[in-house]
Specification:
Structural class: mainly beta
Low-confidence stretches: 1-21
Order of helices and strands: HEEEEEEEEEEEEEEEEEEEEEEEEEEEE
Number of helices: 1
Strand content: over 45%
Strand order of the largest sheet: 1-28-27-26
Largest sheet: 4 strands, antiparallel
Mean pLDDT: 92
Radius of gyration: 20 Å
CATH class: Mainly Beta
Helix content: under 10%
Amino acid sequence: MRRWLAVMLSSVVLMLPSTASAAIHSAWHVDEGIRLIGVATASDGSAYVVGDRRTSVTAKAFLAKFGPDGTRLWRRSWLPNPDGSTNAAGVALLPGGNIAWTGNVQQQCEGNGWFVQVNRPNGSLVRRYVTPGWQCSIAETATDIATSRGRIFLSVFKHGCCADFYEDGFVQALDATAHRIWRTNVEPPSPTPHSFFDAADGIAVGSSGNLFVSGWGATRPMLHETSPIRGTAVLWKLKSNGTVLFSHRIMAAPMPSIDTPVAIGVRGSAVMVSAGIRGSNVRWHTSPTRGWLGRFTTDGSLRWSRHWDARAPRGAQPTGVAIDGQGNTWVVGTRRITSDHGLALFVRRYGPGGGLLDKDTTRGGSRYLHGTGVATRGAGALVTSEFGNNISKGGRLWRFVTT
């Protein structure tokens, strides 16, 4: 695409990191549960965090409120019965101040369902919705949550169980008290057949009320569990009533993994998508993903993209992205540490034009620390994480600031 010289020069200036920008670093952290998955920040400085706790034999999803200094103010958990298990997936604030959060619920059998719960700022329950058939009759997994006035939106995918083999993404809308309203299937763009696998991983609401959904779409059929996996990240835009406005395949983000998440954040005219691309995942003994971040316009056009840890044995896998009030983008996730084959939480901050402002990597005393979610607050951010390798041993909430 041709551009006027003045526009090109302006873009180059925007891409350069600001000499006035300060390094980000951790101000404090607190431990909670066996893992933390997501965080949302309120205007009074408090934070709402979702994660999991350990019960005798299963996990129990919880919502916790923290004060500006990291003090836990309350915690609310939910488990349907002693043999069931719940796992948190995401949290968002409703405009009136209530908190909406989602997760998945499973009995001791194949298949699972999901739930949405609404709590007041004091922790009291407004209402909980649980999918009928979650006890072994369905297989649906919620991945993210977003809100607007009077509405709650989920990204979800149906998947195979009980000898079935498929994966299909959709968006579910509920009202502010967790009653279902509509459900819309999302598919990669034509000519991809609808029978090809796809998943919805992240969801955000734009300033106009439209929804932006990030996910994955296969580029070849998968006939059985040993079929080669080929696909790319996908970006969808929907009206608030569920009408799909566009479906764009992100060819700059090839993803030969069906399980690697695609995160999204929207603010103003910026639509930020981040994922681990060109590999299986970030864990050792696999082909590593590299970190990737792209900025899109609200019509789905890619403005610029960045990648990091792109040369093996290095690797990185983003899991969360958020845009602060200055238009800077925060990306968090997990990256490899080559010295001892460990894993670390990374935090990276980019300016509106794509320039890397600063970055940080920490393991917090653990050999394996995974970044999971991020929400901005002022000039800083709150970041969730979990430590442990194949089995999560603890969750940790971080406060990152710029100085």
